[in-house]
Every structure is written in C-alpha cells, then in structure tokens.
Design brief:
Shape: globular
Order of helices and strands: EEEEHEHHEEHHHHHEHEHH
Strand order of the largest sheet: 2-1-3-5-4-6-9-7-8
CATH superfamily: Zn-dependent exopeptidases
Largest sheet: 9 strands, mixed
CATH topology: Aminopeptidase
Number of strands: 9
Bound molecules: zinc ion
CATH class: Alpha Beta
CATH architecture: 3-Layer(aba) Sandwich
Helix content: 25-40%
Radius of gyration: 18 Å
Strand content: 15-25%
Oligomer: single chain
Length: 296
Amino acid sequence: MLIFWLVLGTMVLGTMATSLQIPFTKDSPIAYSPGKLPLIITVPHGGLWEPSDIPDRTAKGSLLLADAFTKNIALDIADRITAHYNSRPHLIFQVRRRKVDVNRCEDQGVESDKGRLLWKEYHGTIEAAANNLLKEYPHGLLIDLHGHTHTHGMIELGYLLNTADIHEAKGLDERVLNQSSIQSLAQRHKSRIHPSDLLFGNHSFGEALQQAQIDSLGVVPSPKNPLPVSDALYFHGGYTVERHRSKNQRIGLDAIQIEMPQKARFSPTGRQALVESISQAVITMLDRYYLTRAKL
Ligand SMILES: [Zn+2]
C-alpha cells in the first residue's frame, strides 16, 4: 500500500502547513504521518538512516542497536488500524539509534550538535502531534513500539511501574493513579474501575492483547501473567512515555511502551501475529476509552 509521508526538516514544526508531502524514504531524518485518530504511534529505535555528518555515539554503556523490524511492524499496524476506522493514527519515526537515542534524556541520548537538533525535533514532533490530537479529543493514547531479546518471549507492556511497584499490592492502585503512564486514564475511570484493573485486570491493554492473540505469545502484565519476573527481564517504560504522558490531570495522553519479543519479530508469521494482535488490542482500547463515534 502506498503511504504518503510528511517528512519534517529541522525546525519545520512552525511550517508544517507548507511542508511537502512526499513518500517516506530511507533518507528521512524524522518522518511524521499525520493522523485523525486519538492515537500516536512512535518508533524511536526502528530507523535505519545513518547520516554521515552525525558521529556515532560512543559513550560507555550506550545502546546502539536498532530494534529490528519495529519500523515495518509499526507501518503495518498503522495500515491495519486505518483500514478499520478509515482514519489514520499519527505515526513518527526517527534516525538510527547509533546516531542519537531519542528514548533517553538529552544528556544520555545525544553526543553531537546535529544529534541534539534531531533529538529536539523528534520530541517537538510528538508534541505537535499531541497538540493537534487534543484539539479534536480530550484524551489520546500514545504507544511507543520497541523490540526486546528477553528469553521469556512475551510482549512486555511498560507503564512506568517497575517490578517491585507491581508486585507490592499495597498501594498499587495509588501508584497507578499517581505514578503510572496511564494515570489520566485511571483518574477518569476510578469511580467504576479499580486502577490496578487497568494495569493487569479485565480492563487493561494486556487483557485486550491477550484476547487478540492469534498465536501463543504471552503478554505481561495481563490477567494471565500479571507480574513481571524481575526488572532484568522487564522494560517498565522509558523516556518517551515518561515525557509525553499526562501528569496529574485528566486530560492529555496516556502512554504505553510495547516491547515486542525477538522470536516473533524475526519471522514473517511472527510479525504478522504481532501486527494483528497489537492492532486489534489498540482498536479495543480506542473503542473503550478514547473514541466517540460522532468523531469518525
Ligand atoms: Zn527500543
């Protein structure tokens, strides 16, 4: 399917209306496909573009490898959701992680001036997409797509709560309400849904994903697997969801980091299963919590 992209150059947000709409190419520093749904899909580690004028990052401990196949999985998820609603989500990619890591804070993810410009542009693009979304809807959902290599092979969902946070039942509802990346969602529905149910119960994204699974992949947290085993085997959410989720208010974005297992990403049938199940689960979430039919 031919997809047209709005590709943004440096400092383009103020000139978005005059930007060219051109096909996405491997030379795009940041690609933004604007949407009409209350959904933003970000793919910070899926880009493969390696501009020669940005030096490789070399700081000790820096992660450099791209999350393989996540860009194409995101494209297919966006197409699948578009086919369902006849309306597109917002979709944003970036340059290769070796050059700049936009899912880290500026100090950790940037080692060059041009890398800094792209880092700022990436987060500015998400903010512009969120502002556009919030003109039409009071709330939106951001999903941040990644790939992991943990041997358990399940899909991991990150809400800014670590393993100890989730294991400790006492105070968990409060942590979902006040600390998590879905605190706005939890605040909006707390009169009828226990906040922890939005984390791993029957009202959670994990439950929607569990219901939508078309193969045997598991998902954590979810009703079947509510508790991550350890922080070493669970990504609980990074800079993107931390920065762009709504904080202490009922309006704004809820954010979920989705970590897809290597064994599924590395086979065509596995990627198809990821696309189908994540798309269906996102559609369930949009219908439950974000969309009023009159908008479509
Ligand atoms: Zn990643």
